[in-house]
Amino acid sequence: MLWSVALLPLLLAPLVYLAGRRVGRAGLTLGTALITLATLALAGLAVANDWSGGYRWSDTLALTLDLSTASAVFALVVPLVALPVIVYAGYHESSARLMALLVAFVGAMQWLVLAGDLLTLLIAWELVGACSWALISHRWGKAEIPRDAAQAFLVTRFGDLGLYIAAAAVFAGSGGFGYTDLAALEGGLLHVAAGGIVLAAAAKSAQVPFSPWLFAAMSGPVPVSSLLHSATMVAAGLYLIIRLQPTLSDVGWFAPLAMGIGLVTALAGGVVGAAQGHAKKLLAASSSAQYGLMWLAVGAGFPGVALLHFVAHAFMKAGLFLSAGLAESQVGSYRLEDMRLGRQLPGIALATGVASLALAGLAPLGAAWSKEQIVATANHQALWLALLVMLAGGLSALYATRFQLLAFGRMSRSTREVRSDRFAAPSPSPSEAWALYSLVGMTLLLSLWWWPEAQHWMVEALGLRLPESHPWELVVSLVLVLTGIVLGIALTRRERSSASSRWKSVATGWFGLPTLIEGLATLVVGTSARLARFDDHGLDAFVHAAVMRVRSASGRLARFDDGVVDAGLHRAARLGQWLARCNATRGEVLAEGVPGSLSRLTDWGGRYARQVQSGQMHHYYAGIAMGLAAIMVLLGIGVFL
Amino acid sequence: MILTAALGLPMLGALALAGSRRWTEHAARRFAVLVSLLSLVCLIWAWLRFDPDGALFQLVEEIPWVPSLGMGYRVGVDGIALAIATMSALLFAASIAYPVDTLGQPRQYYAWLLFLQSVSLGVFLALDLLLFYVFFDLSLVGMYFLIGRWGHGQPQISALKFFLYTFAGSLMLLLAIIGLYLSVDPYTFDMRVLIEQQPLTGTGLYAGLVFLALMLGLAIKTPLVPLHTWLPQAHVDAPGPASAILAGVLLKMGTYGMIRLPYAMMSDTFTRYAPVIAVIAVVSIVYGALVALAQRNLKRRIAYTSINHMGYTVLGIAAAAAFFDEAIAARQLALVGATVEMVAHGLITGALFLICGSFWQRTGEYALDRYGGLARKAPLLTAFTVLAAFASLGMPGLAGFVAEFQIFTGTFAVYPWLAVIGIIGILITAALFLDLLRQLFFGRLPSHLTDFPDLGRAEWGVLGILALGIVTIGVYPRFLLTLIEASSQILVGGR
């Protein structure tokens, strides 16, 4: 039964594509929204009734689905976030193909979070990647977009290799693929499996050094980015380490590595976000940074905290991407300096402001509470770690402020006059606005997390373990957040002159990581070109020469054939002709003469025969001998004729 | 009788086409498709009658010919042979049905295709070494004429290169077969006897030489790097359907031969040399993928991915041979994976080469940079190419994944490092196929392609059936795996 949660959207997606062109925009949006709602309802039923599922491929290969705390939370959050995004997409993009792919994407993600073994997980893992490729290359007409989609796919697929290796290691150790088999592994194989899983998860959730693929993914339409960053794809990496944390933490290097990766990504992503001038890329860097914080929490041994921060982040980040899309359709680009739409879209600006404050981590929003929990988990490990997490929090306050003020701040009078001449973009449709408001509404609702009763209930229901927190953490955090906000305001003031300093260009480009990745790709392509030349001129040349030699040998044979064998035939033919000519001249004489002389001979023979009837035996004998000789001569003549 | 019918019907069909001058193009094509489908139906019937719990070889037919020399007409199947033969018959039906310019000689074209179908099925169904060899060689003749007479570019040279190179391989194979024949007492060409007796166990140098000759002959056909250079040129100059058969069916004779002859008949020797074979296979995987990535010609690129994919198959076979008694589950997984890879590669690459044929029919060009932006002009062509490309790069839900996952998982348990290096192949394959899709279908539409027509009904009908096969194996591989597991379990010594 659990299969239905994943299969319903996956199987209905082709139908959306085929029917989508006939039912019009409203029908298409309604249909896909209903499918998402049905998925949500099924997920709810599944969680309530603790469904599971299995499907055998062969004696060795069996696919299983089952529910854990993390998968239950994800399975509910995914359709819940997807619903407003899909409604938005119906009005913002209105393409049957895009809608179908979004539905399929939700289905693949549900499959991923419900998987009960590594084979099932791997299937969904790769399907999610393929869906994201198709979604990012949605506007394939521009030459660079399919290239970006391919880059995103390839970087994440490089991570996927880790999952292949992990699955193989689990099989080598236990003969199965289940998460329980993974937990039972020992020794080297456990290290290999854990390494593969961490590689796959880090690549998917855009941690350092894989972060730049998220920038390439920004070539996709807004709803795609919104879904990709909040609840699917990028979230998949986090889901995996949350789900497998109990096993992974048995490996000594996992905790420091996960915390290290998370911390570096959180700080670097914060700086990148603070420097970015492209609305979606700013948000993309912030996604990396926020997932970095969650990685840190998992590494520190509190996957439940990461799970909660994921929920808060999902709603708030989905909303922010949608408003970036609304801003883009007003001004025609994602350049933050062109926006400042506070006056044109006051409602949208206010709603975005709430989401931005959540991203900044300002109490009393839910995201602030979950971020404080991460600070507490870090403090569990070391004080300096907690301070660095707080610093990362300050950075997120800074870039959130920048985003809000640049995208939806008020512009100076002079630019407004210039703007009003140029643009007359339609205001967002109610559906698009509704999508944003509902996501912001959920963000507001999560403020309940500050209420101790709610915390208690949640911890009970999910069976979570929360770290002990201290009041001073909150105070220092708050100070840093406010500093970040103030700095953000100051930065945006100065940013009117769009001077780009050197450090800024380094920071906006992920500190040269893309160049590194491109360099690797160039290396591979260069090697392949060299190998191809070797293949043609080195390896093949030998064979080609051999074939050509055979051909030339056959050519020589052919000449021999023409010159010698054929010449012989030719001569034979000429001989025949010559003989025929001889026949015509001399043969005629014979042919005419012989019969004539024969008749004369017979005549003469008759007269002679009468004479020779002498009765004397020796005459008879001589006659017979002469006759025989004549016959022999005749025969001889006949042969030659 | 059912197997004889499967391989005899196409031969009779070929004779009927060759014997009369009165066939029209339409009638010849229709007749050839019908005969080819009848042969497929025979094999499906054989599949239904096959008992997975039964003996290794089933549906055996035997007619002694020269009993004193151990020659005879012997056909029969195990699960591996049956799976590959059925795939081959399906691919033949698809290739025959695929519309192509027969250059005014439809009768001869379809006759050669049916002849080739008959002898190809013969290779997979034969249980007699001599018969196997005869069919193996006759397949070269059929393909030689298809490339030489209906090819483009420099078909004569390509066909000659193909013929000479693979024929050299056949001669090695013949020597090895004689070597095997002379090692049993009494002399026999019966494969079952050879598999049961393992006559070359412990004969050292003699076994090594026979193994070397066998593997050389089969590696040329497969082909493995560095014996592969006949392949790209033969593909580029062959007509689309002939390419599909060359990649889909003829290459399988090499890997099928490895399972049937050296793996089954001299498992002791194979085990000794398995690491070498595995290393060569990994080289083929990575080398094939890298060289394919650099190709700027559509058909050459796909041709090189065949080398990569056949490398996976050989890696699976080598892993299955790695030990004698240990790691049975992993080795079985590798062998099953190798067989599924053969079936999957046949369908996937067959479809890709048919698609190449469609491109050639429309524009007469394979250069990738002459294309672009076709996604809107030809949505059906785009859809089928995307599906086949993703299947080829190993996307789950499609046939390639089922094969490659099993090969890697099985191999990892035996040769972990080789598996890890080999798995890089799927990343490079992904890169080259995404690049291929981008160049063909995305970006701006060049002006000379504004009249590019989408797939016709006959084309998408055929591709649709192949796609159905690819998806079915991807989501419901059980029907195929049950059949293959039955035999591979016996072969790896698990039953």
UniProtKB/TrEMBL annotation, chain A:
GO terms for molecular function: NADH dehydrogenase (ubiquinone) activity; NADH dehydrogenase activity. The chain crosses the membrane at residues 28-48, 69-91, 111-136, 157-177, 214-241, 253-275, 348-370, 382-401, 434-452, 472-492, 620-640. Pfam families: Proton_antipo_M. One of its GO terms (biological process) is electron transport coupled proton transport. GO terms for cellular component: endomembrane system; membrane. The keyword Zinc does not apply. It is a multi-pass membrane protein. It is found in: Endomembrane system; Membrane. The keyword Transmembrane helix applies. PANTHER family: NADH-UBIQUINONE OXIDOREDUCTASE CHAIN 5. This is NADH:ubiquinone oxidoreductase subunit 5 (Chain L)/Multisubunit Na+/H+ antiporter, MnhA subunit. It comes from Halomonas korlensis.
UniProtKB/TrEMBL annotation, chain B:
The keyword Lyase does not apply. Residues 126-429 form the NADH:quinone oxidoreductase/Mrp antiporter transmembrane domain. It comes from the Bacteria. GO terms for cellular component: endomembrane system; membrane. One of its GO terms (biological process) is ATP synthesis coupled electron transport. The chain crosses the membrane at residues 28-48, 79-98, 110-141, 162-184, 204-220, 273-294, 306-324, 336-360, 380-402, 414-437, 458-476. It is a multi-pass membrane protein. It is found in: Endomembrane system; Membrane. Keywords: Membrane, Transmembrane, Transmembrane helix. GO terms for molecular function: NADH dehydrogenase (ubiquinone) activity; NADH dehydrogenase activity; ubiquinone binding. Belongs to the complex I subunit 4 family. NCBIfam families: NDH_I_M (TIGR01972). This is NADH-quinone oxidoreductase subunit M. It comes from Halomonas korlensis.
